[in-house]
Write a structure and sequence with these properties.
- It contains one helix and 23 strands.
- By secondary structure, it is mostly beta strands.
- Strands 1-2-3-4 form a four-stranded antiparallel β-sheet, with no helix packed on it. Strands 5-6-7-8 form a four-stranded antiparallel β-sheet, with no helix packed on it.
- A hairpin with a 4-residue loop joins strand 14 and strand 15.
- It is globular and about 55 Å long.
- The two termini are 17 Å apart.
């Protein structure tokens, strides 16, 4: 029996919405410079941004949802596969919202429509910045300063890599399409993440092998789309790409997380029965076996009371199961 008990700090029901991995983000997108917002995207096509008010009233419980907690809601005609938050605009240092749909990648900025505070409070809306039409059905995306590129004043901006259902990677540099290439041994797609320390992508192929690909290898092997004005399918010509590192996992993968602290990079791979931890060169650090079926993985740093990150070499992760249990380590 445990002496500790978890409590709900704030909660909201998703009603009939359907969600998956990548449909929930917590980040600062301009509502309050000192507070983060909760951004959700559902397969029903609804993008919602919450700014929870945690002030406890006399007649209300602290975890109750209030109407003004929802600051923005937008309905899209297509399902939302994934959302990402980052500096996706070359002309701005603010965080933007990237929305991935089956055939479209769109970037928006949250703006305040009021000139000042009014009686009914501030009003926010999503301002359209740009979009990219996708030639292939999208599966997932990741972000990062691919190639080590930086923006004005040496501050890094972030590019977007979209993975298609057939294993094609399409990289977009802000408003421009950059390149596309095919990954070998991909019958069904798996999660893909970016390693900023080594400028590489890590993913899993259909043989259940963990593979790391250098961005420079993808850039030199892949060629850009030859877009045709006639509306025909785009033609992709590329050489066969070889991974820089690989490791045979022997089981299917649920999720991949990349965690960097104190210049130490760890790749955590959540399988159906095991948790693997690798360094950036796919050398196995440790493996943890489960007696349950995991469903999701979250890696987090230790935070001190003043809000600063505690520098430690210890990995902290949270694993959930389908029976709604939490396992911390």
């Amino acid at each position: 029996m445990s002496l500790f008990k978890t409590r709900d700090l704030w909660t909201i029901s998703g009603e009939n919405d359907l969600f998956d991995q990548g449909c929930l983000k917590v980040a600062n997108i301009g509502v309050n410079k000192n507070l983060n917002s909760i951004i959700t995207g559902s397969y029903n096509g609804y993008l919602r941004i919450y700014n929870p008010s945690l002030n406890k009233d006399k007649n209300e419980s602290e975890k109750s949802f209030k109407g003004n907690d929802l600051i923005c809601e937008v309905s899209f005609p297509s399902p939302i596969i994934q959302i990402e938050i980052g500096k996706f605009n070359s002309m701005s240092k603010k965080n933007h919202v990237a929305v991935l749909m089956p055939r479209k990648l769109a970037v928006y900025e949250l703006t305040n429509t009021n000139d000042g505070n009014v009686e009914h409070g501030n009003q926010f809306k999503l301002k359209f910045i740009y979009e990219h039409q996708l030639e292939r059905s999208a599966f997932s995306m990741c972000k990062g300063p691919f190639g080590g590129m930086t923006g004005p004043n040496s501050e890094p901006h972030e590019y977007i890599c979209v993975q298609s259902m057939d294993g094609t990677l399409s990289i977009f540099e802000y408003e421009s399409f950059s390149l596309s290439c095919f990954l070998p041994k991909v019958l069904i797609p798996f999660p893909i993440k970016y390693i900023a320390k080594t400028d590489c992508f890590v993913t899993v192929n259909s043989s259940w092998e963990l593979e790391v690909y250098s961005y420079q290898t993808l850039a030199t092997s892949g060629k850009t789309f030859e877009r045709q004005s006639s509306g025909d399918s785009s033609i992709v010509k590329s050489k066969r790409i070889q991974p820089a590192y690989s490791y045979n996992l022997g089981e299917s993968v649920i999720d991949i997380e990349v965690f960097t602290q104190n210049n130490n990079c760890s790749i955590l791979v959540l399988g159906e029965r095991n948790l693997f931890c690798f360094n950036e060169m796919c050398n196995l650090r440790f493996m943890k076996k489960f007696d349950f079926n995991p469903s999701a993985l979250c890696v987090y740093p230790l935070i001190s009371q003043d809000g600063s990150i505690i520098n430690t070499n210890t990995l902290n992760f949270l694993i959930t199961t389908h029976s709604k249990k939490f396992i911390c380590s």
